[in-house]
Automatic annotation (TrEMBL):
It catalyses: 4-maleylacetoacetate = 4-fumarylacetoacetate. The keyword Chaperone does not apply. Pathway: Amino-acid degradation; L-phenylalanine degradation; acetoacetate and fumarate from L-phenylalanine: step 5/6. It comes from Chilo suppressalis. Its cofactor is glutathione. NCBIfam families: maiA. This is maleylacetoacetate isomerase. Coiled coil: none annotated. PANTHER family: MALEYLACETOACETATE ISOMERASE (PTHR42673:SF4).
Amino acid sequence: MTAEKVILYGYKFSSCSWRVRAALHLKGISFEERPVDIVRNLGQLSEEYRAINPAQKVPALVIDGETLVESMAILQYLEDTRPEPKLTPSSPLGKARMLEICETIVSGIQPLQNSGIKRHFETEEQYNKFTQHWCDRGLRTLEDLLSKRSGRYCVGDQLTLADLCLVPQLFNATTRLQLTLDKYPTLSNLYEILLEENIFKQTHPKNIK
Ligand SMILES: N[C@@H](CCC(=O)N[C@@H](CS)C(=O)NCC(=O)O)C(=O)O
């Protein structure tokens, strides 16, 4: 019996897709990435893609005969079904610390700088001002949280889902949103270290077709 192919519907510059792409690589799951161009041709808004992800956003993952949407639900599914390597701390406190970072990014930053909201602003300038403000405020929160308790990674010395959320968000902040991390020494340092990890080199947008 041939195993069903795992398919990631994603976009190389999408931070939410990068989270999932990194988890798939870390867990050694081979997959095919099907690009959905969410910026130029707005492929996510087609009816065909809506049948895959009703939210008309990336990512979506086809795995084990199911189609999963929402990056955090996908990451949790991968953690539960392919637990090695474990990307969640074992202790309740460690897990809560990880979720603080994930939530700050996933709920507090990403939706407020999503490319999908751009068409609801009258000018590009208004959109840029709005996204930069909320992203920078989120970065300040992350700096305050992480300066107190990060180690080599966001939660001590274990690579966790928090790092999978952090790197793509910092990439977006410093490229598309043109923010600088100068005010945020902890974030700057973590980002530099994490970008040197193989997992983030392999899955970096510049290395994705
Ligand atoms: N909460 C969702 C957010 C998904 C999301 O906003 N994806 C962005 C790319 S990172 C997207 O598809 N944007 C295009 C749009 O909103 O039209 C998740 O974590 O999967």
